[in-house]
Each structure stands twice: as C-alpha cells, then as structure tokens.
Amino acid sequence: MQNPIARFQQQRTKSVYTGWKIVATTSVIWALQSMLWMQGYGNVAVELRNRFDWSKTFLSIVYAVTRSLGAMIGPFQGRMLEHRGITTVMRVGAVLTMVGFLGLSQVDSRGEFVVVMIVASLGSSLMGFLTLTTATVQWFERRRSLALSIQTMGLAIGGFAGPLLVVGFALIGWRWTVAIAGVLLGGAAWLASSHIGQSPSSSNEPMDGLDPETAKAEQAAEGVSDDHFTLAEAIRTRAFWMISLGHGSALLVVGASMAHLALYLTEDRGFSAGRAALIAGIVPVFQLVGTAIGGRLGDRINKRLIAGVAMSAHAIGLLVLTWVESSVAIGVFVVLHGTAWGVRGPQMQAIRADYFGTTSFARIMGWSAIVVTAGAVSGPLLAGILADSTGNYKLGFTVIACTAFAGTIFWILATPPKNPKAVMH
C-alpha cells in the first residue's frame, strides 16, 4: 500500500497544499473584518462624533470595552476551539457579527451603541484573530512565519480599503453602509467556516506541504521544536509572560492609532474626514510591505530581534507624528508604523507556536490575549482621556510612544522555554 508521503509527491504538481488554501481564505476574511471592525472603527468614530457630538473619551471607552471583551472570552474561546472545532466557533461568530452590525446601523443613543458594539465584538472575536490564527498555525512549522504573514496581508488590505466606508457614508449614508458591510462580513465567514475548519489529521499531506528532503534541508528558526506544552506548563514559563507583555506593549501604539488617527488628523491637524481616512488607509499599504518582509525574515532569523526593532519603529514614528508639525512627519509615521506593524505582527503568533507547539495553541493564545489586550485598550484610553483633558493628543501620544519603546526589554527576556518533560526527568 502506497504511503501518504509517496501519494503526496505524486499529486503535488496537480494540487496546492491545503494549508496554503486555508491561508488564502483566512486572509480574505481578515480583510473584510479589518475594513469594517478593526481599522474601520476610526472612520466610524469620526462619523458618529459628527452626528451625535459624542466625546473622544466616550468613543475610546467603547473601543476599550469591546476589545477587552474579546480578550475576556479568549480562554473560553480557546477551549471551544479545541472541543467544538473551528467551524462551529466561526459560525456562531458570523451570526453575532451580522446581528451586531445590523443593530449598529439603527443606533440613536449611547446606550444602544454600547449594546450593539458588545454583540458585534463577541461576533468579531469568535470569527476573528484567535480562530483564524489557530486554523493556520496547525498546518505549518518550517514556514509558519511566511504563512502567518500572508494571512496578515488581509488585515493590511482591509485597512487600505477602509476609505471605502467613507465613500459609502457619502453615497448611501452611514447606516446603510454599516448594515451592508456587516451582512457581507458575517455571510462570508459562515460560508468559509467549513473550509477553514479542516484539520491536518484528516489529510494525507505532510507538514508545510514539503517532502521530507526539503523539510530536512530547511533550518528551523530559534525555538522551533517538537515539544507541545499544555496550558498549565506554558503559563509557568517566563517566555509566556514576556511574549504577552511585549505583544501588549506594541499594541499600545497600534490600538491608539486605529482608534484615534482619523480623529487626530481632523481635529489637531484640521484635515477633512475624507483626507484623514485616505491617510489612515495608506498605513496598511506599508503594513502590507512589512508583512512580505517579515514573512521572509521570520523563518530565518531571530523573531525576538524582529519584534524589538519593530517596536522601536512604532514608538519613533508616533513621536515624530506628535512633535513635528509637517506633512513629512505624517509620512514618516505612516512608513515606520505601517512597516513595523506588518513585520512584527505575524511573529507574535509564530513565536508562540514555535515555543509551545500547536496542540494547546488556542488555549495558550486565549489566555495570553488577556495580557495582550491590556495594551490594545490602554493606548486608546490614554489617548482619548488625555486629549479631552489637555485639548490635544500631544501628551497622550508621547506617553504611549515612550511606554512602547520601554517594552522592548520584554523581547530581550523572551528566550525559548525548556521542555517541561525533560525538566521533570
């Protein structure tokens, strides 16, 4: 009887590795989610502030609460992914997403806005980052950074398409635009869920889609091993906490820019909403460039070095934007922040899978998300509260940038953990 590897070698010229097909599908879903939920929030915030005169602090708090909610369900979501499967979790998320955004299209008060944003947040979390990343990492080992970088390109492409929301606001109104976009996002996730939920255990294909000779020739990056940590074992390592804190420090800048860049450009710099949306939409262009660079580098050199350098670029870009009042400064921020985000982002998930294995990846990532999200929500909160109290974004952006820069120390300390089984023996 012909073995699976031999069958794969005969078929490899006729078909594409299933893992790459899943990467492509998750990238499309992430693009739609990024356009509407992640990077699109800033454009929606500008529209709501203009319509209802809601404060930056209120919009920041809603952003923080909804993102925190995603982190709070992380442990539950990780357990559900292991026990119920990716397809089921995605479908529940798809339904909640459609309900949430249809509700958002009808809001007229702060209370209604908070409720529908919570529903949309639950849906977006269940069909989003943790679920899509779990689907991808289980198919790759040697080319994990490349796979995650390609998947993350969807995030960048969706951000680049963000200005389409503003166009929709102008053509058919913000209510119809949000409703249609939410239905498209939820519907696409539902349709793609069964494909994304495929498991390598049901496939005859070898890991990474590589024949044994090619896999052996490719040197694994630092920390990649066959060890599979349980959640309890991972939490007891220094690496778990250093990676989580380092990731959270980087998201101080990412969260603040997603929630406030459009508001900063319109209110502190005097730009129109359309021009601000266009500038915010250029950030993902450089994010896309960064993901391509990071995908090639991450499987070849130290991921911790990549993360540390990228965090410094995040911080420098934000400081230049804040203190140099020229169009050049905006360009410097866009290039540095966008490229750093693209280079760094995929390494965050890849290094966890490298260090802890894929068996309990969803649960480990789910618990790590609680720490990580503290950074993602602290950035927008600091920026919004300090902007309302001081009248501009200078102090808030400066504090965020300096804190992110100091966070590079976490990556210096995030060395590979020891095999817990070996330590016991």
Write the layout of secondary structure elements.
Layout: H1 4-11, H2 18-38, H3 41-52, H4 56-72, H5 74-83, H6 86-104, H7 110-126, H8 129-137, H9 144-160, H10 163-172, H11 174-196, H12 212-217, H13 231-235, H14 238-267, H15 273-298, H16 303-323, H17 327-356, H18 361-390, H19 394-406, H20 408-413, H21 420-424
Helix pairs in contact: 2-8, 2-9, 2-11, 3-14, 4-7, 4-18, 5-18, 6-7, 6-11, 9-15, 9-17, 10-11, 14-15, 14-16, 14-17, 14-18, 14-19, 15-17, 16-17, 16-19, 18-19
Number of domains: 1
CATH topology title: Growth Hormone, Chain: A
How many β-strand runs? 0
Instruction: Please state the structural category.
Output: mainly alpha
Euclidean distance between termini CA atoms: 39 Å
Round the Cα radius of gyration to an integer and report it.
21 Å
Give the SSE string: HHHHHHHHHHHHHHHHHHHHH
Helix content: over 70%
- The shape is globular
Q: Biggest sheet: strands, sense, closure?
A: none
Please tally the helical runs, counting DSSP H or I stretches of 4 or more residues. Answer: 21
Compute the average pLDDT.
85
